[in-house]
């Protein structure tokens, strides 16, 4: 019996160990204590970056998460990118060496670096850029809509020679470089097969499913990709800019931010690109870790379904109702509880990061008594259980009287504590006599599809009919164009998460795009922000700070260039 | 002959249960109102696209035809394709299952050894400090939510013993050079220890309490008294006459819980970002990837049925009385 038991035990352990040794790879992980990123201490300099935000796609025509956008910056050529000096963002060439434009501002010529190569050895030329631009413009109202806002008002592009790119605009625009900074050049010889017919292949192509054959050209190539695991970036030897100081960058996704911070403290990670807010003070106390705090680009909000044709709960289209409810939300409590004080209130959709944030909006006061008074005045009486009743309406969109009881949709991909924010919002709405419950919308793709509706077709005014309220966030840009674009009808079924449909607003959007006088553009942009604010397409909640933390064995971090430049990954270097 | 009857009967019941589980798995995902494509969330999914997908998945056929097709595919080991990746469900689930099995097996072996030792010592030293310590330790761990225990281990234990808290491999492993088999093995083992220990500690509590209880019963039996009277050593009395007879309920419990553990390790895998079947199920729910969910549920159901069958067969081996 003894020997049999021993045999069983040994067999069992052998099975475990075999599985352990041969188990699947490609996953999140953490490293050996004290290593600076090598497969043995000091062997190499792999920059190990921890994150709770994952790369959802490596297709620039079909992504949502900001970590994906950051990956595009690292692996695709951009004409220009941002640099950050003396507290200011300015432009510098990335793949483009120089640029000029005609006096009427309608034709821009870029001289790109000669001798470039894609990762498969094929030449990288201006023809790739021209093809990407023309293809994106061609399918702008369909498969390429996600990337098209960077090329607003572009008529076409041509490449007279391998190093010259000429872009023709319908009208001069005031923010050409800021727009083109968000444009990624794709390899024509790979992508053109997906642009046939209606171009849907451009959106459904999943390069991340086979990164060994993914063709890139930039600071890095992708050696390995696991959506919710490890993504490995290897320096591209053909890169034209300052090369990566690290021999590789390993981006590690964590489901648990406490584990991520623990790994940073132990030395299993070198860098965390957004420290969870409740851990910032703890990390700051660690003598081996340095934190860097810069103004953040991410704002959180309540997203109101603003589709004028939404079939139910149409009382939520009334800006006065939305304002009254918003006045019951204690935004300072969200800042204190969820963001541990590392956030500010924000009123504009463009956020504090924008150079053209309208400072004259609001501020929205936290005054629930006034909010309740507004709702009383509007005729939303409280029912026997304290929940207000929306009166019956008549006409094309008639609806019966019903209790003001709604679901708030949240994606599971929030990189901050969305549930706690929801609890505070729920508390505020309850004080206003409105009952809300949480609707878990799934990952970013699934949640976005709930917002846009399914099917969604702007030409038929179809979509935005499934949800009433959502809570999510936006990561804005320095130039406000993109954030303003998400409220246009042109972004229906793409970036629009509200279904907002206001032709007057769309007209202003076009105007600001072609206004080359900075002061006049500022005036239009301010007006647009005021319209969105007054219509309560969003209730802006917070603008949180961007706090990253790295171990002191590394230096040279360009925190302010997160999602703005290849230097974000290439600049960090080991100390000593 | 009776023994063979018993074994055949158990296997027959297991097969019937598997068939019922397969049918329920079909009903759960297909026979209810709507279909997977209706709940699929993708931006710009046109009706034509959905219809094409429905056709590909055979969802445009009658339910009965779908059921026949489903059984036919299963008989060939085909669990369908993932809606998100278009890869075979079988291959999508294989790696996570291997990862989970290794971790669960390590945790279970740890919990069985610790649980049996603590349970036996507690029973043998009934009423002493050792008994009270064992009992309360077992109760404490048994009542802890696994995810909370995991989090405490991450925050307060991991750094002091220098073990990684997340994932299944070192972030830098295999990037610049190909690691040796031994390096890979040690690395995997290190990453498995904390999640396995979390699982093991929770299970240990349960096992220790059951072993103690079963041991107390057997130690009060006449044959144990006889053994002592014969002058057998304490060890021999406990091991040969006590523990072996007390193992029946323990084996049942272990076998019953093994199947559930595999599915129930979801929260532990989430805390430790451990890429097992639990995380895969969470992601499939997130992405509304019903073929993956259906495949995972089916495999987890098989696991429960298989371990139940094993328990029945072990029972037969350990206690021949059940056939009489």
Task: Characterize this entry briefly.
The complex is a heterodimer of chains A (576) and B (324). Chain A is α+β, with helices and mostly antiparallel strands and 576 residues long.
Descriptive notes:
The complex is a heterodimer of chains A (576) and B (324). Chain A is 28% helix and 22% strand. With 576 residues, chain A is an alpha+beta fold. In chain A, the strands form seven sheets. Chain A has a seven-stranded mixed β-sheet with strand order 10-11-12-1-13-23-14. The N terminus of chain A is likely disordered. The longest helix of chain B is centred in the middle third of the chain and has 39 residues. Chain B has 13 helices and no strands. Chain B starts with a helix and ends in a 6-residue tail after the last helix. The mean pLDDT of chain B is 82. At the A-B interface, α1, β11, β12, α8 and α14 of A face α5, α7, α8 and α12 of B.
Main traits of this protein?
heterodimer, A: 576 residues, alpha+beta, seven-stranded mixed sheet, six-stranded mixed sheet, 18 helices, 28% helix, disordered N terminus, B: 324 residues, mainly alpha, globular
Number of helices of chain A: 18
The proportion of residues in beta strands of chain A is 15-25%
Overall SS class of chain B: mainly alpha
- Secondary-structure element string of chain B: HHHHHHHHHHHHH
Runs of chain B with pLDDT <50, length 5+? none
Shape of chain B: globular
SSE blueprint and pairings:
The complex is a heterodimer of chains A (576) and B (324).
Chain A (H helix, E strand, L loop, with lengths): L1 H21 L23 E6 L14 H10 L4 E6 L2 E6 L2 E6 L5 E6 L3 E2 L5 E2 L1 H13 L6 H4 L5 E8 L2 E6 L6 H5 L7 H4 L9 H4 L15 E6 L4 E6 L12 E6 L3 H10 L4 E2 L7 H6 L3 E6 L3 E7 L14 H8 L4 H7 L5 E3 L22 H10 L11 E2 L11 E2 L1 E6 L7 H14 L3 E6 L3 H9 L16 E7 L5 H5 L17 H12 L3 H18 L2 E7 L1 E6 L2 E2 L11 H4 L2 E2 L2
Parallel strand pairs in A: 1-12, 1-13, 19-20, 19-21
Antiparallel strand pairs in A: 2-3, 4-5, 5-9, 6-7, 8-9, 10-11, 11-12, 13-23, 14-23, 15-21, 15-22, 16-22, 17-18, 24-25
Chain B lengths: L1 H30 L4 H4 L7 H11 L5 H13 L13 H36 L4 H14 L3 H16 L19 H39 L2 H8 L4 H31 L1 H6 L5 H11 L2 H29 L6
């Amino acid at each position: 019996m003894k020997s049999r038991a021993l045999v069983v035990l040994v067999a069992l352990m052998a099975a475990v160990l075999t599985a352990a040794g041969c188990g699947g790879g490609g996953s999140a992980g953490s490293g050996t204590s004290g290593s600076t990123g090598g497969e043995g201490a000091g062997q190499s300099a792999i920059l190990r970056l921890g994150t709770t935000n994952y790369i959802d796609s490596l297709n620039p025509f079909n992504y949502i998460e900001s970590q994906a956008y950051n990956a595009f910056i690292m692996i695709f050529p951009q004409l220009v990118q941002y640099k950050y000096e003396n507290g200011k963002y300015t432009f510098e060439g990335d793949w483009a060496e120089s640029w000029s434009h005609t006096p009427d501002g309608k034709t821009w010529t870029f001289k790109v670096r000669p001798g470039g190569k894609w990762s498969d050895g094929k030449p990288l030329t201006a023809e790739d850029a021209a093809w990407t631009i023309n293809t994106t413009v061609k399918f702008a109202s369909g498969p390429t809509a996600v990337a098209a806002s960077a090329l607003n008002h572009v008529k076409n592009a041509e490449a007279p020679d391998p190093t010259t790119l000429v872009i023709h605009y319908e009208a001069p625009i005031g923010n050409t470089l800021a727009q083109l900074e968000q444009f990624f050049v794709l390899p024509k010889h790979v992508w053109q097969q997906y642009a046939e017919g209606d171009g849907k292949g451009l959106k459904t192509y999943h390069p991340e499913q086979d990164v060994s054959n993914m063709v890139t050209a930039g600071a890095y190539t992708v050696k390995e990709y696991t959506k919710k695991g490890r993504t490995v970036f290897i320096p591209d030897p053909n890169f034209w800019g300052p090369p990566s100081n690290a021999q590789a960058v390993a981006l590690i996704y964590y489901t648990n931010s406490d584990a991520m911070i623990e790994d940073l403290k132990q030395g299993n990670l070198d860098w965390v690109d957004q420290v969870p807010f409740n851990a910032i003070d703890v990390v700051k106390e660690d003598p081996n870790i340095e934190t860097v705090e810069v103004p953040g680009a991410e704002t959180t909000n309540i997203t109101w379904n603003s589709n004028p044709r939404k079939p139910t709960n149409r009382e939520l289209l009334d800006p006065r109702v939305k304002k009254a409810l918003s006045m019951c939300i204690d935004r300072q409590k969200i800042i204190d509880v969820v963001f541990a004080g590392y956030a500010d209130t924000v009123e504009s959709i463009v956020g504090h990061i924008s150079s053209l944030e309208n400072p004259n909006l609001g501020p929205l006061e936290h005054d629930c008594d006034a909010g309740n008074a507004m709702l009383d005045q509007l005729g939303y009486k409280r029912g026997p259980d304290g929940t207000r009743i929306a009166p019956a309406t008549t006409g094309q969109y008639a609806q019966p009287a019903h209790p003001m009881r709604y679901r708030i949709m949240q994606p599971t991909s929030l990189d901050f504590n969305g549930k706690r924010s929801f609890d505070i919002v729920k508390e505020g709405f309850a004080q206003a006599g409105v009952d809300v419950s949480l609707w878990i919308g799934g990952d970013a793709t699934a949640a976005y599809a709930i917002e846009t509706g399914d099917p969604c077709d702007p030409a038929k005014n179809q979509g935005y009919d499934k949800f009433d309220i959502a809570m999510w966030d936006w990561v804005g840009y320095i130039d406000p164009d993109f954030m303003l674009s998400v409220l246009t009808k042109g972004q229906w079924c793409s970036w629009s998460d509200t279904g907002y449909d206001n032709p007057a607003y769309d007209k202003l959007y076009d105007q600001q795009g072609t206004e080359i006088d900075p002061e006049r553009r500022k005036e239009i942009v301010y007006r647009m922000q005021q319209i969105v604010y007054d219509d309560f397409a969003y209730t802006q909640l917070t603008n949180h700070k961007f706090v990253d933390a790295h171990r002191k064995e590394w230096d040279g971090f360009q925190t302010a260039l997160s999602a703005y430049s290849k230097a974000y990954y290439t600049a960090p270097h080991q100390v000593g | 002959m009776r023994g063979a009857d018993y074994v055949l009967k158990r296997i027959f019941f297991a097969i019937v249960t598997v068939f019922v589980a397969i049918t329920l798995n079909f009903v759960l995902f297909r026979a209810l109102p709507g279909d997977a494509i209706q709940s699929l969330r993708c931006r710009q999914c046109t009706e034509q696209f959905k219809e094409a997908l429905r056709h590909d998945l055979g969802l445009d056929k009658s339910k009965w035809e779908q059921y026949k097709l489903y059984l036919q595919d299963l008989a060939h080991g085909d669990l369908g394709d993932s809606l998100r990746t278009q890869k075979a469900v079988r291959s999508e689930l294989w790696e996570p299952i291997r990862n989970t099995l290794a971790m669960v097996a390590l945790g279970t072996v740890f919990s069985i050894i610790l649980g049996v030792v603590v349970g036996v010592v507690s029973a043998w030293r009934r009423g002493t400090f050792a008994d009270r310590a064992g009992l309360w330790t077992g109760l404490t761990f048994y009542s802890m939510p696994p995810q909370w225990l995991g989090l405490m281990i991450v925050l307060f234990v991991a750094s002091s013993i220098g073990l990684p808290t997340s994932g299944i491999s070192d972030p830098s492993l295999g990037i610049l050079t190909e690691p040796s088999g031994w390096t890979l093995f040690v690395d995997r083992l290190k990453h498995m220890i904390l999640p396995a220990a979390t699982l093991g500690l929770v299970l240990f509590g349960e096992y220790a309490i059951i072993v103690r209880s079963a041991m107390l019963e057997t130690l009060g039996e006449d044959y144990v008294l006889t053994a002592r009277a014969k002058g057998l050593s304490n060890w021999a009395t406990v091991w040969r006459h006590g523990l072996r007879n007390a193992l029946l309920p323990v084996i049942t419990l272990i076998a019953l819980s093994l199947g559930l553990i595999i599915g129930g390790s979801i929260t532990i895998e989430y805390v430790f970002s451990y890429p097992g079947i639990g995380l895969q199920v969470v992601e499939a729910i997130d992405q509304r990837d019903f073929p993956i969910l259906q495949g995972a549920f089916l495999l987890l159901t098989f696991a429960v049925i298989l371990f139940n069958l094993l328990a029945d067969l072990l029972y037969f081996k350990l206690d021949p009385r059940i056939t009489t």
